[in-house]
Structures are given as C-alpha cells and as structure tokens.
Amino acid sequence: MAYDNNFQRKMYQGNWQCSKCQAAITELPFEPDQNRLGQLLCRECHRERVKSFGGGRGRFQR
Ligand SMILES: [Zn+2]
Q1: Cα of 42 to ligand 1 centre, how many Å?
Q2: Which of 5, 31, 45, 48 could make an SS bond with 20 (beta carbons 3.0 to 4.6 A apart)?
Q3: In a 10 Å sphere around its CB, with 0-12 CB exposed, 13-18 middle and 19+ buried, how is residue 34 labelled?
Q4: Considering the entire predicted model, what is its pTM?
C-alpha cells in the first residue's frame, strides 16, 4: 500500500471535447497527442471503454 500514500497524478489542463458524448474535458491525466484530439474520451467514456476491453490496455483478443 506504499504507493497509495500521498500519491498524486499530474493533470494537464486544457479545453477539449469528448469524441463520444461531446462533454467538455478540462483536464487529462496525460498530455493529449495533437493527432488524437478527435479521439479523446472524457473520464466516464474512458472508463466504459476500458471496461469493455476487459481492463487491458491495448490488448485485443483476436
Ligand atoms: Zn464522454
């Protein structure tokens, strides 16, 4: 549990829009790629997507 102590993730402030629900995105836990601004997802949509992928990152089952 050592990593949970006072852990703070750096957030990037900006003015983006979710590509799925069109919600405004004002901060992200990563610096968005200029080429992927049209694919940004808000926190809610991102969570849904991660869930649909089974929690893996970039792992597809053929
Ligand atoms: Zn969204």
Answers
A1: 4
A2: 45
A3: exposed
A4: 0.65
